[in-house]
């Protein structure tokens, strides 16, 4: 009895939900239509109602920093980090610090990488890992790459460990989890420019600030995957552990963590990828190496050598990604009783042997130790010519010029003006309606309130321009990414190469896109949308492919048996089932777009990114934070609505 | 002449101070480097100079606006290129907060203003006069700007007043702000292929002069107070009706603690003064000759001993 009551109650509510959403949406429409008649305070928040939040934030920062003395705490942390960073810096590129043994010769590092690759994934992985390091050395970027790695070698483990501890705490104490999750969500959506000033002030400009910004950016997935993995440990395993009389520590060490191994390693993989994504951006706050070099090369328009650095970053990312994924799949190896120790640790010994051999070789042969500028194989100047020839090719420029004219005059500017024309309350109501449709009053209030806060900060027009670039780029990405994803998912042969392109596009430093985008389309919104589009298409394609591939085989067979054509199978079976996963991809695309739209300030925009860039000139921490929160809140509203919808769909489909 | 006496004065006072306190600290002097070549090479030049004096030097890459906060806190020890136009505001804000000071001015003068590459003259032969530029505004039109000409400005955080000038002089131009120096170069690079006319923000000393020959637009000459007092400048009713100063400063900023921690290096720092030609040469070694910054610095030091040796003695 009780059961049916609950379900009918739920059904009632679900029926009621759309009705309220429709009312909210009609209100929004009404306001829009009545705009010419509306009083000014109903179209925009009047200036008088905008309180000086930036000044309040500034005093709050000053209070926390100086009066509460947080700066002493953070400076102590950065001193500890600096000690670690000095060790890796000495080992990898010979910075003049304790323990004064480095730099390790490149050939020895490459040999160890190859052996590690072999241990994790056989000969193919050995070639990839060893080959990457050989490429880095031969192209003449060894020192730069090692400067980058010296920071990542500290940042990634710190992020993994801290993430693991936070994840454990969140799993143990649900209240802590509830407090932590919103914080993490904000951390992930806060634009990069907002990290920049606090990182420099609290953690000292240089590798330490770069390290901290990287950790802050990379930590959320580790926390999420840890709690997810630990929650999923099955009761039977836990019972077995308890029955064998494990202590709490033993339970954790020998039961929970090994059972959650896969999720934890996926978290590690994500941490590594996100750390590499920050390589260029953190160069603004003192991260040495590839990113800093890339920025200075781009400022003298050396496209060829920038491209080579991009290739290096992609190769390192792909290597680390594949190795850590191979580690996820690889199950612990068990030997028969009585196997001699050298056989158990054969690969470890090989690695040590190769390392020692190459270190000795490097003492005798200079090329094995380091490769000088005259010896490297960099082809920067030649690549430069090729890129320029393509970009200034007559056919290409006539197409891009037409596209630029068409998109600016007929699509982008009209769309932007239309969005700017909308009265503020209408936009807030429409967002609230969307919230209500997927998650009832709670979602409606959350999403609506987020946008209302943005309006109250007085940065509404800038926020809408930001939103306009995001929406335009994501629509374009959907128009191109979804068909490609569907095509790739249906032909096995296509899936692998397209996924590889996705990986490359995602790890290739976004800065490098900006220059060709400008050369093709000029400094305007087309370039901005184009740069966001490249970045946002990747998750859309990836999740579409994965969503369609994950449709259970039985359902496909059932469809075949009932005589469905390929088209019917796609439209009626595969797509509906893949839709929740595709929605996650769509959500990721929007999050990526919000990330990239701020970076696009380097092209030249009129949105929040431009205002954020301005705050750097005056060290206006308070205003910077207010602007950052505007971006985060808009991103979070979308995140909330789409993820809610995806979860609803999943529940309905019972997957 | 006044400059020389202040130099002598500061040298003398530093010499007295150097006699009184012990030698430089063995902690590394931290020199910030940014993302344009002349600054990177100059930083390496000065760093290697300090090294010949027995100091340890380390370089750290930073944002060129946020760096003043770091100098103030002593996280980095100095800043070698404080451009009046681009960084004057950040520098003055940091001066007010305290922690850093003006440690000298380069001989080089900087100019930041509207500029065009030479091929633009074909489409608009009356250049470099600003009224001639205004008459051929249509040649600079783009889809975004309609029938008005486009002026491509620098990033907004350089705090220029191009829009005010367009309004004050009643020009047929729309200001579009690029987001970075790289964006400016990309636009010139793209215009170069078809020799399209383009007018944009540029400055000297700069590597671009060597790659793309060009000229500054001649606006009404800068007069003191032009941006504040409407009476100054050709139009008596508005402000901002002049070009930018053609001789902006290029200063050196130092952390207040530097004088005590590294007295010898500080003394050398206050004597440093590079000329426009020297700065252009440093940039050229990297941008045109494709050398690495540290090698370029070593080469420059070897070729110019007579310039820098007196500074370190």
TrEMBL record, chain B:
User: Where's the ABC-type glycine betaine transport system substrate-binding domain?
Assistant: 28-302
Which keywords does this chain's UniProt record carry? Signal
Q: What is this protein called?
A: ABC transporter substrate-binding protein
The reply to whether Signal figures as a keyword in the UniProt entry is yes
Keyword flag Signal: yes
Give start-end of the signal peptide.
Answer: 1-23
Which domain of life does the protein's organism represent? Bacteria
